[in-house]
Design brief:
The protein is of the alpha+beta class and 315 residues long. The protein is 53% helix and 20% strand. The protein has ten helices and eight strands.
Length: 315
């Protein structure tokens, strides 16, 4: 039998006098009030728990969506700091710019669905490569990509520059694959990308207003990287002298004629990246470089014969 029932029977029995029975009845009444309050608290607690879980799920979903708009480094930095302020700092970075040659003309010849698929596919693959190399993706400007190395995390000037050039070279190879795919599908006739890289001090940090901020870079060296990209030939990576001096032991490059770039008073010495150095013997390195960007079987055979005739191989 329930304990409350036992007490209620006791309150109505003749074993207690009138005064004691009244006291027991008052205790039973208070106990019942406490039970009702306890049940309300439990229901409210269950409702709060449900609302907290729903709110937690919404925040996780929001966090996941927000992470798609930010580089992992910027995302982690924002969520690890207590305050987000408009502030910046001077820092030596390696800056990368790229864009698709004649993309405006390409957009005019494509249906919107084809254009969207092509651009999203391209940007997705380039972003994956960038993140694999530890890059900070600054922004996309249409078909252009702005990336930098050295902030928020740096591995040292030389390593940052080396990673950037290695990233660019992998992107260059991937673009060739993308071009073959979309040309074979008859969607485009050509798909070429220009890349420019420069190393130097820029101002990096939060810029904007209290209501809307952007974590980005500004300065002459960022502008120079952009100008180098504009001056680069299609499917070419163009380096400034500053970047070349940091990575020259890791690449094969050809010095170009000094160029005059818009907004820069002096002529700029540039270097075209031909290949990354590897452990291959020098002769094989020459063959590898000579076959860059050649996809026709007959053209490959012809180029191989030419290279072999020029090489002085041991007998």
């Amino acid at each position: 039998m329930d304990k409350l029932n036992i007490v209620e029977e006791l309150a109505s029995s003749d074993r207690l006098n009138e005064e004691d029975r009244g006291a027991v009845k008052r205790l039973i009444s208070e106990y019942q009030k406490i039970l009702r309050r306890h049940e309300k608290i439990i229901r409210k607690s269950d409702r709060i728990s449900y609302e907290l879980k729903a709110q937690k799920d919404r925040l996780e979903s929001l966090s996941d969506r927000l992470s798609r708009y930010l580089s992992p480094q910027i995302y982690n930095m924002i969520f690890s700091e207590e305050n987000t302020e408009i502030k910046s700092k001077r820092k030596k970075l390696t800056i990368f710019f790229s864009d698709i040659k004649d993309f405006t003309a390409t957009t005019e010849s494509l249906e919107s669905e084809e254009l969207t698929n092509l651009l999203n596919d391209y940007l997705t693959q380039m972003s994956e490569i960038a993140l694999e190399h530890g890059a900070t993706i600054d922004k996309y400007i249409g078909d252009a990509i702005v990336i930098f190395f050295g902030d928020p995390e740096s591995h040292g000037y030389r390593e940052d520059a080396k990673r950037c050039v290695e990233m660019a070279f992998e992107m260059k190879d991937r673009v060739a694959e993308i071009e073959r795919k979309y040309v074979d599908d008859g969607i485009i006739e050509s798909f070429k990308v220009r890349m420019g890289i420069n190393t130097g001090y820029v101002t990096v940090g939060n810029f904007g207003s209290e209501k809307r901020m952007d974590y980005t870079i500004i300065g002459a060296n960022a502008n120079l990287a952009s100008r180098l990209e504009s001056a680069a030939e299609p499917n070419t990576i163009l380096l400034s002298h500053e970047t070349y001096s940091l990575v020259k032991d890791h690449i094969n490059a050809t010095q170009q004629e000094p160029v005059s770039l818009k907004g820069i008073s002096k002529q700029i010495v540039t270097y075209r990246v031909d290949s990354l150095k590897s452990n291959l013997p020098e002769e094989l390195e020459v063959i590898k470089n000579g076959l860059q960007d050649i996809h026709s079987k007959d053209a490959i055979i012809e180029k191989l014969e030419q290279i072999l005739s020029e090489l002085k191989l041991p007998e």
